[in-house]
């Protein structure tokens, strides 16, 4: 396959040589050409090539690699060419192929010369360029391409091509590099090339067209050619380049020779073109096929490799040019106004024309220019500009100042005006009467009350004349109003009109038969006429009477004036006469009368007719009746009947005559009628021809001046002048304003003319005006006038002034001329015809709704039905609002609505209409109940019963309820049948167990009860915390770094400058892990055992006791110094030279046991880390679950005992046969919860060693003896340095964030909160406690727990002489109450404190309870005692007890019963936070918190900060503790029974633990031990040890005994078993080992039991 | 699994975390994990994974991982249908590796090909000062467990900011769902049709 390429390579080499030789000559040409291309910039590829040609180095290597690739491709390509001959033939085939190619080249040269991009293709121009230019173009292109083409076709250069080659030598070898690439380009642009050929052809034809007519060929093309759009574009582009051509022509000048050649060639080409054209004309197909064959093939294959093409690079200037077409950078220059406006339009400035133009929003000038330029660039940009040539813009919407001033929250200082003050809420009586919609500020309503004045129609100060004048005025008023109404005239006109109508109607029909309708109407008219006539008569009568009375009163008045000889009133009556034309008047009168008479006649006729018909009917009836009667009574009473009949007939006759009766009066009646009418007319009307009398009352008359009046009258006038009046306006019975007081005038009129504007908030219920009359300063209520509340449509301005009449019934008498009020008086001198007048008058006022500024009535909306009229409640009750309250029956309402004919269109009635339509619309049976989920049943998945029955659903439900058994149940089976009933067994059992007390497990029934109770409390608390668990805080979900405080930051910065100390490693904070995504095996418990102190050492098992042992020791010292020496002496006697002891530590946790290697000596140093796996119960690693882990870490110290078991001495030389035995020396147990909550435990711990350790003794002797040194000796013991932690560090769950309710005073709680907060701020590591939570979950102040309480009397009696021992005994008693940390029982909740009686009842409690009890006991024993809240190891935060006696402080550990001196370095108490007694709480503010370094003098406020101080005194808190504790004597028999049971259980257990060995029990030993245990209990486990040991040794001399008594407080049997198991005594595996086990239970009062277990293994000494 | 009465149904997921769009960040990698209910168990495949670090292409804005997912679950109960939780990490300006987004989506339950786009978000700092210091120290707030984004509990205490999106593609095959009575394919949905031809 390589052969073709080889051939090519050869050819290439040859060509290169040739080119190189030529290249040397053509340097100048090269430069020229290069410059040409640079100028033209038309083809990216060629340009690049040229550039590369100029600077070879950078691209060369790359190109070479590229070329190599392409060569490979070429090979493939060749393979794929099916037309080409097989490679072997290639060599020969090539020259053969040359031919057509060569021809091709000649012919198609201009075509093939095309640069790959048709866009930039130089070509013929149609119009302007000369032929020569066109040729130059082509030649130039040809230069660039010819070489590559040649090569690519694998053509051996023909001699004739040399010419062109010379031009092309610039391309040299790089050309070759690029050629495959180029070819690909060309291939891809093959179609374009074809197109170009067409163009070229057309160009020539174009020339011809220029010359003359279209040729035949052109015509042929026209019809056959498929016109492409592209060729048309090309010429256009070419046009753009005249400038460049010029440059090129300059170049031509320089290189004339080359150009000449070019020209030649160009001409050649033209000829070729011509040929081609002719060919195309004649036989298009062969030529195309020729080209097609190979080109097409290349094209096809090259396309497959397109992706490998070299990356395109568009050079910068070209890119710029290209971008210029699409991109546009708007200029920042100002746009001339002319371009923004239409042509010949001058900018028009609206502002200058006086129109308002808002301020435009501010836009930067440059931005504005940019925007304008951008807009202008668009097609219709101009429409964005306004008339003024600026961009149209709305006015700036931003206000200058913010509408709401900013409110600065300065914490300390708030403007006093803004400060809020507490006002107690006032309950208003009229709360319900508020106008709805008062909320919105626009609707303030205003009532205008206009009090214009008042006129008295009677006043006590009236003189007689006044009375008459008032009457006259009244009558005249009446007359005026009547005249104003002119009812008489109105009625007269109406009457005339009616008469005319009737007349017309009769005229119209003229005797013709009247239709029914007309008759009906006639009748109606006549009826109307009659009615009207009567009314007119009445009115006329009244008019006349009024006129008469006016005149009469006036006459009286005149008479009075004459009589009293002075005038008081200015009234004067004139009667004007109006003359009438007599004849006309008479005529009218006569007409009227005649008409009336006529009508009356007609009426009578009608009446008569009616009566006749009535009569006839009656007659008929009577007849029929009579006939019947006749038939009935004929036979019986003939005669009588006859008579009667006659009578009847007579009456019948009379009746029959009746119709005739009215007939005769018809005529005489008409006369009488006329008379009657005339008489009436004379009475009520003025006589015809009489002048019309019109009275006129004037007030122009002179009033007699005061001086001329008599004294009485003068006094009256004086009195009048003294009087003053004012009016109070009352709104809703509240005075809102009053008028000025005005003097009473002589005419008893008062003018106020005041308008009160009432701005109202409440519904108007009543408006009252009270008229007050005063003399001087005193005033009396004269009268009260109620004014109706106006309709909302009554508005100020349009409302008429109303006159309200009023009267008062007060009695007033005067001794002057005043007539008084309510008293009779007479006008006559003789006192007859008295009359009584009451004060009365008219108040003219006007109440209306005000009109606002913008003509908006300030009235409540009328849509509020009856708003003003009724109470505001009306708005709530639709029925009440229409005035029909308590209309509950819908039917009645409907009836009422129908009756009252409510207008359905009145908006006021909308509500009721709606109501009625609803009611009448259909009997919608409204159900009595309301259902929330009507369709629930349809959506129920299953019925509830099925849901209950299905095991699967039950399982799912229990799981989602997080029931402990199912909380993490995985993969609930999909099928019901796959769930066995067993799944629920445990759960159901537990539910059932709720009621039954399991005595088996708890042994003691009392304890079982307590356990039950605790269990219940725990469950309820846990349920509460489960809910709280689902409350998340941000820190639970998002881990975020705390913001470092400035101090920390500063420290960190400081640390940066610190020198690096690689040898001083820093402790790194471990990352805390929240217990969420943990699984089994993730958590490990790390126990680092560092070293031990004072571990007991072995004592040689000698049968003879050291004699000196007993004498040299005090009784209190259990371990003897002489023993030490003895051992030292005997040390050499050990078979293997064993050291004194080989202790190792074994740590067991969750049944996994690991141990250290054995160290040597009593003070060993292990320094080993033990890693124990931890698995949480049920795989639940939530913090709640972890907190409730009750497992304990047991750390046991053992002595490794190696004993030689080689039986045969001879083997000793080559055999080691050793038995390893281990002896338990002591243990420490640390609950896991402690480790979990404290995250690490670090310190030296006292190992609890058994009081007697057979075979071991303490190495160290004691110091000085005496007095309280026992305390020091107690602190002596075995110690172990430990470091325990959990890896990874777990974050203990937070306590429940829940505020507990309390019965404490709020003030106390706040104070305690402040106290604790301050304490934790000052000393964060010192625990402070002031309030605690009792067992009921209530917050209680801590001092309430402290109260002296009596310890059991037995304990006090035990050591009557030694208070110290009593104290120890009491402490021991307290420590015997089992300890149960709250964190275990009430996981994640909090510390619960129980009172002492609860504690003793439950017999379980935390350190606090122990400490409180101990403290209370000490207090009752008369000691000074405090509760210490501090932290100790290993418990962490805990409570101890402090006592003060004999000038020293003692610290008691209540859980163990141990006590320490203040300066005891082994005291486990590390930090003291606060001291508590029954009076106060003191917080430690000393610099040190360790007991050794502090003072306990609480009276010093500098050292101890008291809670209750002078500023906050003790309120005298009562204690929550009972008065005294009652102890139940424990049943001894029960204790013995318990003892037996424990022993039995333990024995069985030990046998279980030794499954592979028989367990033998040494009865003798057991009985010995059993006797010994009570002694131990009595002595407190110390004194008798040595004695006992000796006793044992003497008894069991032949045995090696290792064993010890264990002492435990009793709670359950499980811990006892655990403790026994952890000692590992059962592991003794010697074949002849025997065991001894003794149990003793000592009962203390109150069911407190002390359990001793003595366990020993015996080995027969050989 | 030829029995006619299957006890479990299977859900096979394969697909890929195709790409992400984080406009301002680069050089990101992602982690994924599945969150599922108690009744679900993975039978094969990886439950968690961490991808390579990917950078943006020159022209493109998306970060392409094409990180395959292949896991099969078995379950007895559709409750707790698996969700995939994707968390994206990348370096900040100081080179600290910080979280760039969390997101979760349920695995589609109809068989066929699905493309899901998960909007991503990150928890916000609690205060401006926190924000500044976290920016400075390169310790932005993170979820203690990325799985919280797949559950509703405890989300109310967080404030988050959206941060781009991740596109995932799933091919889902289920087995025995119908036999157990869970019909997830509706008539309208035709999983065979894929929008390959435009």
From TrEMBL, chain A:
Q: Which residues form the CEP76/DRC7 peptidase-like domain?
A: 1391-1507
Which ranges carry the DUF5523 domain? Answer: 162-424
Using the UniProt annotation, give all residue ranges assigned to the region (Disordered).
Answer: 1-190, 224-292, 634-705
Q: Name one GO cellular component term.
A: ciliary transition zone
Q: Where is the composition biased (Acidic residues)?
A: 248-282, 643-657
Quote any Pfam family the record assigns: CEPT76_peptidase
Residue limits of the Centrosomal protein of 76 kDa C-terminal domain? 1535-1656
Q: Where is the CC2D2A N-terminal C2 domain?
A: 688-861
Instruction: Identify this protein by name.
Output: Coiled-coil and C2 domain-containing protein 2A
* Biased composition range(s): Polar residues: 123-133
UniProtKB/TrEMBL annotation, chain B:
Spell out the subcellular localization from the entry.
Answer: Cytoplasm, Cytoskeleton, Cilium basal body
Where is the signal peptide, in residue numbers? none
Transmembrane region positions? none
The record's listing under Pfam families reads:
B9-C2
Similarity remark? Belongs to the B9D family.
Subunit description: Part of the tectonic-like complex (also named B9 complex).
Task: Tell me the protein's name.
Answer: B9 domain-containing protein 1
Q: Which organism is it from?
A: Phoxinus phoxinus
Q: What is the lineage of its organism?
A: Eukaryota, Metazoa, Chordata, Craniata, Vertebrata
């Amino acid at each position: 396959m390589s052969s073709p390429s080889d051939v090519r390579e050869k050819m290439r080499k040859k060509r290169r040589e040739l080119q190189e030789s030529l290249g040397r000559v053509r340097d100048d040409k090269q430069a020229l050409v290069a410059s040409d291309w640079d100028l033209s910039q038309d083809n990216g590829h060629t340009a690049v090539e040229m550039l590369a040609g100029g600077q070879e180095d950078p691209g060369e290597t790359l190109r070479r690699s590229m070329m190599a690739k392409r060569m490979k491709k070429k090979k493939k390509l060749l393979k794929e060419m099916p037309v080409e001959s097989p490679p072997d033939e290639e060599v020969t085939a090539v020259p053969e192929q040359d031919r057509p190619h060569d021809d091709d080249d000649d012919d198609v040269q201009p075509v093939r010369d095309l640069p790959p991009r048709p866009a930039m293709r130089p070509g013929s121009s149609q119009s302007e360029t000369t032929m020569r230019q066109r040729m130059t173009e082509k030649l130039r292109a040809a230069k660039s391409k010819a070489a590559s083409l040649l090569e690519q076709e694998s053509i051996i250069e023909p001699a004739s091509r040399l010419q062109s080659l010379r031009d092309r030598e610039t391309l040299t070898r790089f050309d070759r590099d690029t050629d495959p690439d180029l070819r690909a380009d060309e291939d891809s642009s093959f179609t374009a090339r074809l197109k170009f050929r067409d163009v070229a052809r057309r160009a020539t034809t174009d020339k011809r067209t220029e010359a003359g007519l279209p040729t035949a060929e052109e015509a042929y093309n026209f019809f056959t050619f498929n016109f492409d759009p592209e060729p048309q574009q090309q010429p256009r582009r070419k046009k753009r380049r005249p400038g460049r051509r010029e440059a090129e022509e300059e170049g031509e000048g320089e290189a004339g020779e080359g150009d000449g050649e070019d020209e030649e060639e160009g001409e050649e080409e033209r000829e070729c073109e011509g040929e081609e054209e002719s060919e195309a004309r004649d036989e298009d197909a062969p030529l195309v096929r020729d080209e097609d064959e190979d080109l097409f093939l290349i094209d096809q294959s090259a396309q497959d490799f397109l992706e490998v093409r070299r990356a395109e690079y568009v050079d910068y200037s070209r890119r710029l040019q290209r971008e210029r077409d699409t991109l546009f950078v708007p200029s920042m220059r100002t746009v001339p106004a002319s371009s923004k406006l239409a042509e010949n339009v001058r900018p028009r400035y609206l502002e200058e024309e006086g129109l308002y133009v808002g301020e435009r929003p501010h836009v930067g000038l440059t931005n504005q220019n940019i925007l304008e330029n951008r807009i202008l660039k668009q097609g219709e940009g101009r429409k964005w500009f306004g008339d003024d040539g600026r961009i149209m813009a709305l006015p700036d919407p931003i206000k200058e100042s913010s509408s709401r001033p900013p409110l600065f929250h300065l914490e300390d200082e708030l403007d006093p005006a803004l400060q809020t003050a507490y006002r107690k809420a006032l309950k208003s009586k009229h709360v319900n009467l508020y106008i709805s919609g008062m909320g919105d500020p626009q609707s303030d309503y205003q009532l205008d009350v206009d009090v214009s004045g008042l006129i008295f129609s009677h006043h006590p100060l009236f003189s007689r004349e006044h009375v008459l004048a008032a009457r006259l005025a009244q009558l005249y008023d009446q007359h005026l109003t009547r005249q104003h109404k002119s009812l008489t005239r109105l009625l007269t006109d109406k009457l005339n009109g009616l008469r005319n109508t009737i007349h017309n109607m009769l005229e119209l029909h003229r005797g013709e038969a009247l239709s029914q309708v007309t008759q009906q109407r006639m009748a109606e008219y006549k009826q109307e006429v009659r009615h009207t006539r009567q009314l007119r008569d009445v009115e006329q009568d009244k008019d006349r009477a009024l006129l008469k009375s006016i005149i009469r009163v006036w006459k009286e008045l005149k008479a009075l004036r004459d009589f009293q000889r002075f005038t008081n009133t200015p009234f004067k009556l004139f009667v004007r006469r109006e003359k009438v034309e007599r004849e006309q008047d008479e005529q009218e009168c006569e007409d009227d009368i005649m008409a009336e008479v006529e009508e009356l006649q007609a009426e009578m006729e009608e009446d008569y007719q009616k009566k006749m018909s009535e009569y006839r009917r009656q007659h008929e009836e009577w007849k029929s009746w009579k006939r019947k009667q006749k038939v009935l009574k004929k036979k019986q009473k003939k005669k009588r009947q006859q008579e009667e009949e006659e009578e009847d007939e007579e009456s019948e006759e009379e009746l029959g005559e009746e119709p005739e009766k009215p007939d005769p009066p018809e005529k005489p009646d008409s006369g009488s009628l006329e008379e009657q009418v005339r008489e009436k007319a004379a009475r009520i009307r003025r006589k015809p021809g009489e002048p019309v009398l019109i009275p006129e009352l004037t007030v122009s008359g002179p009033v007699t001046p005061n001086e001329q009046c008599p004294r009485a009258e003068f006094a009256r006038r004086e009195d009048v002048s003294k009087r003053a009046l004012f009016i109070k306006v009352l709104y809703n019975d509240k005075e809102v304003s009053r008028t000025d007081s005005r003097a009473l005038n002589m005419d008893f009129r008062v003018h106020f003319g005041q308008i009160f504007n009432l701005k109202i908030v409440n519904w108007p219920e009543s408006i009252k005006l009270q008229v007050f009359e005063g003399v001087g300063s005193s005033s009396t209520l004269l009268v009260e006038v109620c004014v109706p509340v106006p309709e909302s449509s009554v508005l100020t301005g349009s409302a008429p002034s109303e006159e309200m009449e009023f009267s008062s019934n007060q009695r007033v008498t005067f001794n002057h001329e005043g007539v008084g009020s309510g008293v009779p008086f007479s006008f006559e001198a003789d006192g007859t015809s008295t009359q009584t007048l009451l004060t009365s008058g008219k108040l003219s006022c006007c109440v209306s709704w005000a009109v606002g500024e913008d003509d908006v009535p300030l009235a409540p909306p009328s849509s509020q039905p009856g708003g003003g009229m009724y109470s505001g409640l009306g708005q709530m009750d639709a029925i009440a609002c229409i005035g029909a309250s308590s209309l509950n029956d819908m039917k009645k309402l409907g009836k009422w609505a129908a009756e009252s004919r409510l207008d359905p269109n009145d908006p006021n009635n909308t509500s009721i209409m709606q109501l009625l339509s609803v009611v009448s619309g259909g009997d919608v049976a409204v159900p009595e109940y309301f259902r929330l989920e009507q369709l629930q049943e349809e959506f129920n998945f299953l019925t509830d019963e099925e849901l209950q029955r299905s095991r699967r659903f039950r399982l799912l439900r229990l799981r989602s309820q997080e029931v402990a058994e199912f909380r993490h149940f995985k993969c609930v089976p999909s099928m019901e049948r796959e769930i066995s009933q067993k799944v629920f067994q445990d759960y159901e059992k537990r539910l059932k167990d709720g009621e039954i007390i399991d005595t088996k497990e708890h042994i003691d029934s009392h304890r079982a009860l307590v356990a039950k109770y605790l269990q219940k409390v725990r469950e309820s608390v846990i349920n509460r915390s489960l809910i709280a668990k689902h409350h998340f805080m941000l820190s639970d979900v998002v881990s975020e770094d705390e913001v470092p405080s400035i101090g920390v930051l500063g420290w960190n910065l400081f640390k940066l400058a610190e020198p690096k100390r690689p040898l001083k490693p820093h402790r790194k904070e471990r990352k805390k892990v929240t217990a969420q995504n943990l699984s089994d095996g993730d958590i490990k418990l790390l126990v680092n055992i560092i070293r031990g102190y004072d571990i007991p050492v072995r004592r040689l098992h000698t049968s003879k006791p050291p004699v000196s042992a007993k004498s040299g020791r005090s009784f209190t010292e259990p371990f003897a110094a002489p023993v030490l020496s003895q051992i030292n002496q005997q040390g050499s006697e050990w078979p293997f030279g064993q050291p004194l002891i080989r202790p190792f530590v074994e740590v067991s946790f969750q049944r996994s046991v690991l141990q250290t290697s054995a160290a040597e000596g009593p003070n060993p140093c292990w320094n080993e880390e033990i890693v124990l796996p931890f698995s949480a119960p049920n795989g639940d690693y939530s913090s709640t679950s972890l907190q409730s882990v009750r497992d304990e870490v047991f750390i046991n110290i053992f002595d490794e005992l190696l004993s030689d078991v080689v039986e045969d001495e001879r083997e000793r030389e080559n055999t080691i046969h050793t038995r390893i035995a281990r002896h338990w020396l002591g243990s420490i147990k640390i609950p896991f919860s402690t480790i979990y909550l404290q995250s690490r435990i670090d310190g030296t711990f006292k190992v609890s060693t058994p009081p007697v350790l057979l075979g071991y003794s303490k190495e160290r002797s004691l110091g000085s003896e005496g007095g309280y040194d026992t305390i020091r000796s107690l602190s002596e013991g075995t110690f172990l340095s430990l470091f325990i932690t959990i890896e990874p560090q777990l974050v203990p769950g937070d306590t429940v964030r829940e505020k507990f309710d309390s019965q404490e005073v709020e003030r106390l709680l706040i104070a305690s909160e402040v106290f604790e907060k301050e304490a934790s701020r000052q000393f964060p590591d010192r625990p402070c406690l002031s309030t605690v939570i009792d067992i009921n979950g209530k917050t209680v102040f801590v001092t309430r727990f402290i109260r002296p309480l009596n310890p059991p009397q037995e304990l006090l009696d035990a050591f009557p002489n030694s208070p110290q021992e009593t104290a120890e005994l009491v402490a021991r008693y307290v420590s015997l109450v089992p300890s149960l940390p709250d964190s275990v029982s009430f996981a994640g909740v909090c510390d619960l404190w129980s009172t002492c009686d609860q504690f003793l009842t439950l017999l379980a409690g935390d350190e606090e309870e122990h400490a409180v009890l101990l403290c209370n006991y000490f207090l009752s024993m008369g000691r000074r005692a405090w509760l210490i809240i501090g932290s100790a190891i290993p418990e962490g935060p805990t409570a101890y007890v402090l006592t003060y006696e004999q000038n020293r402080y003692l610290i008691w550990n209540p859980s163990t019963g141990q006590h320490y001196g203040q300066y005891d370095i082994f005291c486990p108490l590390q930090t003291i936070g606060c001291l508590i007694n029954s009076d106060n709480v003191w917080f430690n503010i000393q610099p040190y918190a360790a007991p050794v370094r502090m003072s306990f003098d609480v009276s010093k406020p500098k050292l101890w900060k008291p809670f209750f101080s002078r500023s906050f005194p003790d309120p005298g808190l009562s204690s929550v503790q009972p008065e005294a504790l009652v102890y139940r004597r424990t049943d001894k028999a029960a204790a013995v029974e318990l003892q037996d049971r424990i022993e039995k259980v333990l024995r069985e257990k030990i046998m279980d633990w030794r499954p592979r060995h028989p367990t033998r029990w040494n009865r003798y030993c057991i009985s010995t031990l059993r006797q010994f245990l009570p002694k131990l209990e009595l002595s407190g486990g110390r004194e008798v040890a040595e004695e006992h040991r000796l006793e044992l040794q003497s008894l069991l001399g032949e045995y090696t005994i290792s064993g010890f008594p264990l002492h435990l407080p009793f709670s359950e049997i499980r811990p006892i078993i655990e403790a026994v198991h952890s000692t590992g005594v059962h592991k003794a595996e010697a074949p002849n080992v025997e065991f001894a086990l003794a149990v003793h239970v000592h009962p203390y009062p109150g069911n407190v039991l002390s359990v001793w277990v003595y366990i020993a293994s015996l080995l027969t000494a050989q | 699994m030829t029995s006619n009465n299957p006890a479990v149904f299977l859900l096979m997921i394969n697909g890929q975390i195709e790409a992400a769009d984080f406009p301002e960040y680069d050089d990101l990698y992602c982690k994924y994990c599945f969150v599922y209910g108690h009744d679900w168990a993975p039978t094969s495949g990886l439950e968690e994974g961490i991808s390579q670090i990917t950078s943006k292409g020159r022209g493109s804005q998306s970060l392409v991982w094409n990180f395959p997912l292949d896991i099969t679950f078995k379950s007895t109960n559709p409750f707790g249908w698996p969700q995939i939780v994707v968390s994206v990490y990348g370096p900040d300006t100081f080179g600290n590796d910080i979280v760039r987004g969390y997101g979760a989506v349920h695995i589609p339950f109809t068989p066929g090909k699905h493309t899901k786009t998960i909007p991503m978000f990150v928890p916000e700092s609690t205060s401006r000062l926190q924000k500044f210091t976290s920016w400075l120290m390169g310790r932005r707030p993170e979820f203690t467990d990325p799985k919280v984004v797949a559950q509703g509990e405890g989300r109310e205490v967080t404030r988050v900011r959206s941060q781009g999106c991740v596109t995932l593609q799933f091919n889902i095959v289920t087995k025995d769902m119908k036999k157990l009575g869970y019909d997830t394919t509706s008539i309208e949905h035709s999983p065979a049709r894929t929008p390959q031809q435009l």
